[in-house]
Model the fold of this input.
Amino acid sequence: MSLICMAVYDTDENGRYEYTERTLENLFCTVDWSKHRMVMIDNGSSSVTKKLLHGYELKGVRDIITNGMNVGTARAINQGIKMRRQGEYCVKVDNDIEIETKGWIDEMEAAIERSPEIGILGLKRKDIQFDANNSDPSYRSELVQLPHEPGQTWITVEKGPSIMGTCTMFNCRLLDKIGGFQDCSIYGFDDSLISLRSVLSGFWNAYLFHINIDHIDNGGHPYTQEKHKIASEAWDKYNYMHAGYVNGSLPLYVEI
Done:
C-alpha cells in the first residue's frame, strides 16, 4: 500500500482549478483505490476547488487537510507524510499532471521492492532533458537493470542524483532515516535537497522512465513567473544548505 500526498493551492488569480480537476480525474482512473489511499492538503484554495476536493472525499479519498493559508508545497507534503503508516511508501504528486499508464503506482512499488536501496523513484516528464546520452555530464543518467528472477518482468530504471518531484515515490526506509522535506521556506529546491539527503543517507535515486507522464501546466502565466522569481531569490540559501548537508553541519533527519 502507498499513501499519495497532493498539495493544492488554487485561487481565482492563478486559475489552477482546471489542472487539479484533470489530475484528480486521471488519478482515479489509473490507481487501484482498494490498495492505495490518498491525502489532499488544501493550502487555502478557492471555494470552487474546496467543493471539488469534497466531491472526491465522497468518492473515497480518506483525508483532506485544510490550511487557512498557503504554507508551501514542502510543508504541505510533510503534513501528508506525517500520516503514513509503518512500512507505507509515500508518493508526492503535483496537481498539474496526467499519467498514461494504469497501475503505475504498483510498478513503482515493484521497482523499489526489487531494489530496496532506491530512496526516491520518480516518473519522468517528457520535457526533462536528463538522459543517458546527454553530452552534458550534469544531465547524463545511467541505465540500471534491477535484480531479476526467472518469471519476473525485466525492470530498467534511469539512475541520477536528483529527481524532479512531479510524481515521486519515497521509500519508507528512506523516510525512516530522513523524516521529511527540509526547511520549507526555500521554494524551488525542495526536490534537489531531498534527493541529496537520500544519497547521503546511503540510497540512490532513479526514474522509472518507461511510464509516460504529461505536465499539463504550459506555464507562461504570472503565477509561474512569480514562482520562478521566488526560486531565483533562494539560490544562496540553497547553496548554504547543500554545503551543510555534505559537510555534516546540517542533520539529514528532519522532524516533521
Notes: The mean pLDDT is 91. Residues 2-247 form a domain with the Spore Coat Polysaccharide Biosynthesis Protein SpsA; Chain A fold (CATH 3.90.550.10).
